[in-house]
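Researcher: We plan to redesign the surface later, but first we want a full-length starting point. Tokens attached.
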């Protein structure tokens, strides 16, 4: 009889109980499955790569500049430099985890064989969320949906004179809360598009630009917690722990709203002078901005229908992906009322998330015991900090595997996970969508350190609202 290959990665309940503290558990698991250390080392190198990505872009620009100078000196027109293009590719944050998946797969093949690697990639890893984010990001960024959202929020921004500050407040407060209905990825896409048009287009100072980015990521992360189906970290636990929308409203809703208002208010007070200064730039831009024809209401209604179909069937890839194909046909048929679809940013975001879940699937050996060893406050803080290094949906999913987790601890781990969802681009599934849309407004791309600093204060404020 052919021996049955051991499961990969080993189920968490397959590890024998170990007497001692957390360190003893991790040491024993590393000794029992040495590949655990290899997989985690590759994952952390990938994280370091995301922080160094901007340096690759700077180097790529320098190489291209030197290449252009040499071409001109030789009497030839400038042309793309292959080394510069390769460095630029390596410097794209969205491709980092995919690149290191190649290294991880090679390590799996060397340790377990190709059949195990193929089974893990094809049968163990769930790519539904990555594909869903690609589809919802594409649909939500179309001209009819953006026009509908912009028109709705414009009525509120008009109360403040439609100044950049009024738009800023409207988008970063109401947009994330909308995520509880249309899902966080869709809310992130709409908020990023509108901020790009009504705020970032006026070239705010770097500090305000990063503060706004961090605030947006934090607000979106907690803004989807008013329901049980919109935020990825909540989706991971809702069915297992029997959480419904009334439960979410009772335990998270008021805290999320309070955190969003307080965090936004704090940044508004800090940057009110800079926000007021953008009003002049807006007036100058309006003089050169051409107006576009309105989209017929029936086309907007059809787009909303496709958006609703995608959200309702977000767990069923065959259904929402099939609907997406019909959507592409409809966009082609109504081209005069559409903007050209740019599928590159959604594809890159989907690729980013797919790479992240591949890496995340082999990190449970250390994340689960870390979560299981903490009490309420340490668990909240631990989940918040771990989220900066991994998708918060993975953190909460692993929490469902911890035995005998009490009701208070369940609320604490989800609260910590959503509170830390804005610290890094990998902390929350919708973040790559926001980065892909807004990166062009930052010189040489978005700095991970700048995002971390911009999100720090909102994270603390929101975290205190959930914790206290």
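Model: Full-length starting sequence:
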């Amino acid at each position: 009889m052919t021996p049955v290959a051991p499961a990969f990665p080993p189920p968490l309940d397959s590890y024998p109980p170990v007497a001692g503290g957390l360190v003893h558990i991790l040491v024993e698991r590393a000794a029992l499955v040495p590949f655990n250390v290899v997989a985690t080392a590759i994952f952390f190198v990938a994280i370091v790569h995301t922080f160094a990505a901007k340096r690759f872009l700077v180097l790529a620009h320098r190489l291209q500049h030197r290449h252009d100078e040499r071409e001109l000196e030789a009497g030839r027109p400038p042309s793309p430099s292959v080394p510069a293009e390769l460095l630029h590719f390596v410097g794209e944050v969205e491709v980092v985890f995919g690149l290191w998946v190649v290294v991880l797969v090679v390590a799996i093949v060397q340790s377990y064989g190709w059949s195990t690697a193929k089974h893990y990639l094809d049968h163990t890893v769930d790519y539904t969320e990555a594909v869903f984010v690609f589809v919802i990001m594409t649909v939500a960024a179309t001209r009819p949906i953006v026009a509908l959202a912009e028109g709705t929020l414009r009525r509120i921004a008009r109360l403040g004179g439609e100044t950049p500050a009024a738009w800023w407040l409207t988008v970063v407060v109401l947009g994330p809360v909308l995520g509880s209905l249309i899902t966080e990825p869709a809310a992130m896409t709409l908020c990023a598009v509108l901020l790009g048009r009504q705020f970032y287009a006026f070239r705010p100072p770097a500090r305000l630009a990063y503060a706004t980015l961090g605030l947006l990521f934090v607000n979106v992360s907690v803004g989807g917690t008013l329901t049980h189906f919109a935020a990825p970290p909540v989706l991971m636990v809702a069915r297992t722990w029997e959480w419904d929308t009334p439960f979410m409203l009772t335990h998270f809703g008021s805290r999320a709203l309070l955190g969003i208002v307080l965090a936004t208010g704090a940044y508004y007070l800090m940057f009110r002078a800079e926000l007021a200064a953008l009003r002049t730039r807006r007036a100058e831009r309006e003089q050169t901005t051409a107006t576009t024809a309105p989209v017929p209401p029936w086309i907007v209604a059809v787009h909303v229908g496709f958006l609703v179909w995608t959200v309702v069937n977000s767990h069923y890839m065959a259904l929402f992906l099939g609907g997406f194909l019909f959507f592409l046909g409809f966009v082609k048929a109504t081209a005069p009322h559409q903007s050209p679809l740019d599928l590159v940013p959604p594809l890159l975001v989907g690729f980013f998330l797919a790479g992240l879940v591949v890496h995340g699937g082999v990190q449970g050996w250390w994340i689960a015991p870390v979560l299981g060893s903490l009490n309420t406050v340490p668990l909240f803080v631990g989940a918040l900090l771990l989220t900066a290094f991994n998708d918060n949906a993975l953190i909460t999913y692993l929490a469902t595997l911890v035995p005998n987790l009490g009701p208070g601890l369940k609320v604490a781990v989800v609260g910590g996970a959503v509170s830390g969802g804005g610290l890094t681009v990998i902390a929350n599934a919708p973040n790559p969508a926001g980065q892909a849309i807004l990166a062009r407004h930052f010189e040489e791309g978005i700095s991970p350190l700048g995002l971390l600093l911009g999100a720090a204060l909102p994270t603390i404020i929101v975290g205190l609202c959930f914790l206290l």
